[in-house]
Amino acid sequence: MTSSSLAALSDTLFSIAVALYSVAVIAFCAELAFGGKQAPARSRAFVGADGGPAGPGPAVPVGPIAPSTADHEPARARRVGEIAMAFTLLGALVHAGVLITRGVATGRLPWGNMYEFGTAVVLVAVVVYTVLALRTPALRHIGVFVLAPVVLSMVGIGLFLYASAGPLVAALRSSWLAVHVTSAILGFGIFFVSGIASVMYLVRATYEAKVAAGQRPLSRVVHRLPSAAALDRTAHRTAVFGFPIWTFAVIAGAIWAESAWGRFWGWDPKETWAFIAWVVYAAYLHARTTAGWRGRPSAWVNVVGLVVMIFNLLYVNIVSTGLHSYGGLG
Amino acid sequence: MTTTVERPAAPPTPPSRPSVGGQVRATLLRWWRQLTAMRTALVLLFLLAIAAIPGSLLPQRSLSQNQVAGYVTDHPTLAPILDRFYLFDVFSSPWFAAIYLLLFISLIGCVVPRAIEHGRAVLAQPPPAPRHLHRLPDHATEPSPLDLSGTLDVVEEELRVRRFRVARRAGRYGPEISAEKGFLKETGNVVFHLALLALLLGLAGGKLWGYEGSILVTEGSRFCNTFQQYDTYSTGALVDAADMTPLCVRLDQFSAEYEENLTAASFTADIDYGPAGSASRNTTIGVNDPLRVDGDRVYVTGHGFVPVFSVTFPDGTSFTDISAPFLPSDTATMASQGALKLPDIPGSDEQLALEGFFAPTGSIQGGVLTSIDPRPLDPQVALIVYRGYLGLDSGLPQSVYSVDQTQIDRGTLDRVGAANLSVGESATLEDGTVISFSGLKEFAAMQLSHDPGQIYVLGAAIAVLIGLLGMLLLRRERVFARAMPGTGSPGTVLSVGSLTRGSADTEPRFTALVDDVRRALERRAIAAPHRPAPSEENPSS
After folding, report:
1. B267 neighbourhood in chain A, CB within 8 Å
2. Rounded distance, CA B285 to CA B292, Å?
């Protein structure tokens, strides 16, 4: 195929990936909806050996007709959840195809402008989430809260950040592109999932506090989420995985800057915001071992870190004019 | 008669107030403990992150003086206030330095005692086993067919196979084993934090002893590494002019290549370099590929065009091959602006200047010259000619690339002509002066940098990464085991407990250890079924 037809194929695959992820979002929503009735009060006190709420108390209505699985999820919901995972996987494959066809069409690594970078970051986030959800099925229940931002991000990327397939600018023609930008993409994608897990933790922790206080919160969706401890663990482990990768990305960027810009660190806006993100995630890892900062405060720090990463991508490349403005827009 | 008078007990004397010195010391100690607390480190980390924000949102002098000047012009009331608080020099400001210095003092105060403690732990034996092993997060109890010491022999062997450091004691509650491994995790922690400190020191050293200079070099000219020659330069506080490497660089040719869609593909500069006065070597440098020699690096940071003119005066004298670099204002099309100033004209007291707009590939649209292509396919220049007093010796600073507007405003500099010229064309002024656009050269913006600290910063950064990986990925484990006489025919009950830092899924590993111990106990019992009955006072170490 010619490079222009490959580039056109890449754009078509982008739309297909968005469509597949949207179907997955609907399926994840359905899984939450079919999952059962409202949470009984104090059910948290009777945690069974399998981690789910143990058998029905007198006031708890029995779930829908089909027999339940180990975590007391009705079979219909589990099937819909598996369909959702299948669509997510399929979407991720097509999404990878977007980048692969772009790369073949332009003859270079497909991260030379913000459109390609953002697309790659979202793909890494989806892959990380899929791996986690396959290993820990309870994490399927946060699928809609991961995939919905993914769909929104891709729509935003396609509408506002799109740049047609073309050659790299001279400054990016270096083998450091494969090292620095790849690790930045991996780190960002991993932190994306970590941030969403922290947001879900905050929601669930509020819910669990209410249940422990004896209230009967009405939310049935939050009842279906994994436990706050599991969400906190997920957020922490992904952050621990992503932090060395981000550290490496910043160091590799500095080494590249020394060859390209004349100095390894000059407080260029991109460098500064990468540094700010690093400091915030370092604070997150410290906070989790500091008395008084465990639980919700450190989850907020993680959320701040994700906001900083997104700001780093969007503001610095679009608005400020530093050395790192390889947005490719206009 | 004697009466005993009961005297009330004397009130207790209040404790004496500590001396002033003692009070001061206590206060300092309290402040020190606050500073090195983890909570303070968290607050300082957040402050550091917040403090960096204005440095990225506001224009900074270290990045672009022009942008700062533009901001000051746009915000005449706000800008001086911001300047007062060093908000245009955030990263060299005293308050930013205060934050990271406090953070580093806190870091040192926290890490050094921990490093000493860790050093002691590495050299010492594992601590004695706690009394209640069943209170450890992972614990198990196994009946053992062997006697007390035989059981512990098996446990010790299994632990040593897993590379634990094992100590065996005759504890208060029975013979026991303490085992420990994973010291590299804490070593990684210490290395990470100390490497951060080394990084800061390397940065500081580089700033103090480093220098950097920039200069526009036209094809055919050269520059040498002395402060006077640079257009702009910055230097550390401890740099002496005599320390600068005697290096000279001559630009032979600059070439820029473009793709079909006019994206820049490469910029290369052929240069000769060498110590001043001696034979020079030839090389090509480009983007991402600087010259590295003797600790100095020479970069190509920009480029542009140098239109060449010749001016013939009415009395017959002429200046040929006069040129001035025109600075690009748009890197996509290389549309450039500049000025050529002629302060000494034969036969006149007045001075002449050509100010204009240059397009490498020009196209005149609506009477205005614009550039449509960055390659020099059809170079055109739009000139305005001024005659009068340029103000070069007036004491007021003016840009090299434009004519001083104040002189025009005062009426001492008059506009005497304008022309759009292609290469080879000329324009004649009213008094007969002929100005012709005779040719084109290119210039490269070159930068020479010297940073003696950067190799140490790189080493420290790599150490940071290695320490970080060790700290986050390794496990620190302690395993304790105690053998007690049990009831029934298996003579011994083995109690095992484990404590792990840095890993969430400790259960599978602990279960595997206990399974291995059980199998080894069974194998040993089968191998030596006629061991004598266990004796409580069996010495075990």
Report:
1. 170
2. 10
pLDDT tens readout for residues B479-517: 999 998 877 665 788 899 999 887 777 888 899 999 999
Cα distance between the two ends of chain B: 75
Chain-centre distance for alpha carbon A13:
21
What does the buried/exposed string (b/e) look like for A270-298 if buried means 16 or more CB atoms within 10 Å of the residue's CB?
Answer: bbbbbbbbbbbbbbbbbbbebeebebbeb
Report the predicted TM-score, pTM, of the whole model to 2 decimal places: 0.85
d(CA B216, CA B231): 7
**Among candidate residues B478, B496, B483, the one with its CA nearest the CA of residue B540:** B483
Nearest by CB to B48, from A168, A264, A279: name it: A279
A309: Cβ–Cβ under 8 A, 6 or more apart, which residues? Answer: A188, A191, A192, A195, A277
**Chain A stretch 158-187, residues whose beta carbon is closer than 8 A to a beta carbon of chain B:** 166-171, 173-174, 176
For residue A165, give the nearest of A102, A238, A78, A220 by alpha carbon.
A102
Please enumerate in sequence order all residues whose Cβ is within 8 A of that of A304, keeping only pairs 6 or more positions apart, or say none: A280
Measured distance CA(B206)–CA(B227) in Å, rounded:
18
For the stretch A158-192, pLDDT in tens is: 998 888 888 888 888 888 989 999 999 999 999 99
Q: What is the mean pLDDT of chain B?
A: 88
What angle, rounded to 10 degrees, do the helices at B94-123 and B183-209 form?
A: 150
Closest CA to B304 of B360, B260, B343, B342: B360
Dist CA A138 CA A133 (whole Å):
7
Beta strands in B343-465, from DSSP E residues, in sequence order: 351-359, 361-365, 368-373, 380-388, 413-422, 426-428, 434-450
CB interface of A with B, residues 223-252, below 8 Å: 233, 237, 240, 243-244, 247-248, 251
Q: Do B472 and A244 touch (CB under 8 A)?
A: yes
* Complex-level ipTM: 0.84
Pick from A169, A170, A268: which is nearest to B63 by CB?
A268
Q: Is the pLDDT of residue A63 over 50?
A: no
